[in-house]
């Protein structure tokens, strides 16, 4: 007779067995807790009730298997999910609902009374197509089998399950597949049939409660389901979702699929740390709100914490890495505004349609006498004004710290926004130096920063190298932009890096970066 390592499913569904208390995996970090209202608070309360009802897993005779720590299991689940393009947040929560993140107890495989096997609790009918021994002893094989089944349920979308309008990497796209993973049964109905109220005891509600509890800054959308959307096909047992389409209140894209080099912005008031744990001190001198991702998947150093960190660099800095909880970051969502096809004319500009189009777009302006003065050297105040006019969705600053930027002066708002965005910084000692001219290498660094922020691809089109750029902070920017045909030298592989940039040169460079076909 086969003996079992008995376990109770952590949430209501077709595999519920009585038992004692399962040791908790602590998701929440008190420091980053935030208030959640409505169903999300109810979901989280329901999670802890479910945890308290979970069973102790007791070892039994059978095939032996390796023991893994919670952190090792988290990493395995995350990596397997990412290979399948499934949000790891979903996979980790399903595995926790199924087995409490247990493949084994005291070296013996976890087997439920209904025959669910291992970490992902692959059931006998499903196990028929898999090697049962490997499901019990090989955690990677067990995870893969579970993801096969979850993907199969996702494939039911648009057929047995409704369309949601969410993308595959959105957490909400997996709400109904998660329900089907446990079973299309009435106990998993999104609402109670007698009252129409949300069924917080449904398996998928418990899974999404865990998703939200892994990181208290994370919040997922909810579905408004009515009795007309469901068919209770067998009294007390069967359930089908008859609605063709049910959309969530909002969608939440998995943070795990952000990539190296992606630009992100941080929530106001977020803690920026020197390492991937709240045990590290805050880096209070780091300016935001924009950062570029250095490493998108960094695990918390503590064994019992399972939210995701990003290693990031503040926009415009080099060799300075900090860490921010991924749920506190959003895509930068910054882009250049469209360039007008119309053109304005200036008395001192001939055969330069680009300047005319920039003027028609209100990105640049001329002087009262009808001139543009294209050969004038551009100042820091002027470049701040151009950038804040042409780059959409920059955060508006409310104040600035610069003693040399007078209240009400024509460039005050532009300097405030450019400074708050991290595009242009002060010169030290509370000085912005608005009338200071910008050098060619400074413009190159600024353009490279803009490319990072807007996600503009810089494709190498030549192998030219400038030989006179000695400043380490400018070398990479000049090199990349030269090879991408955004900037050009002055001849003989010279860039003339310390010469001032002119008004016409800056307009041309911005056109090359963002608008040139």
From TrEMBL:
It comes from the Bacteria. Residues 337-397, 398-461, 462-517 form the SLH domain. SUPFAM superfamilies: Lysozyme-like (SSF53955). The keyword Signal applies. Signal peptide: none annotated. Keywords: Signal. Gene3D superfamilies: 1.10.530.10. The keyword Signal applies. This is SLH domain-containing protein. It comes from Alkalicoccus urumqiensis (Bacillus urumqiensis).
